[in-house]
Design a protein that fits this description.
Elements lengths: L5 E12 L8 E12 L3 E5 L6 H8 L7 E6 L2 E2 L5 H11 E4 L11 H6 L10 H13 L15 H13 L5 E5 L7 H17 L3 E5 L3 H6 L2 E6 L2 E2 L1
Parallel strand pairs: 3-8, 3-9, 6-7, 7-8
Antiparallel strand pairs: 1-2, 1-4, 4-5, 9-10
Helix pairs in contact: 5-6
Length: about 230
Amino acid sequence: MSNDTSLLQLKDISREFPSAEGGAPLKVLRGLSMDVARGESIAIVGPSGCGKSTLLNLIGTLDQPTDGAIAFDGRNLIALNDDELALLRNREMGFIFQNHHLLPQCTVMENVLVPTLAHGRATADDEERARHLLDRVSLGERLSHRPGQLSGGERQRVAVVRALINQPQLLLADEPTGALDQTTADQLGQLLVELNAEKNVTLITVTHSEKLAARMTRTVELKDGQIA
């Protein structure tokens, strides 16, 4: 399923969930196939309930498909065990959510370094990379601040840096601008596009924002669990 230009390949992916009433299962994704090139930026759009977040969870290995195959950088994700998937998520994928999920008791620097702690303690290189990235997103003067001392846009920029700290190949964003005002959302969207190019990190974002989707190199529309 792999080739040199593709980072991610999904083939005939389906995802069903049991019915609460014990009836027929709920089919959220139906035979979906998609290739994602290295360094590409993609917006996943569509009406609520069409399967956007479910698809993102499957790509991020937070869930498993009912049927189909997923390959990431030439590896069959379905064949990996829980420990291997956890390591892959930590080192090769970064996640950004609508709500930043920063630790309120930790400083900006400490929050950014949390993903590095999965393999021991933060190194001097990790700390230097954190400072560089925080400077890049105009937060170099906020290293010792806590989330409660930051604006919503600043907190979301910290979340972006945290997602990038382990130099992932893939950045997954679920409604990253959904909780922000339009001006701040525009600034964050521009930042994501710039980092996608500068770091050559593949970006997949689920969004209802037409403005954010228009910044991506490709838009994938879902309808009734399939690519429209």
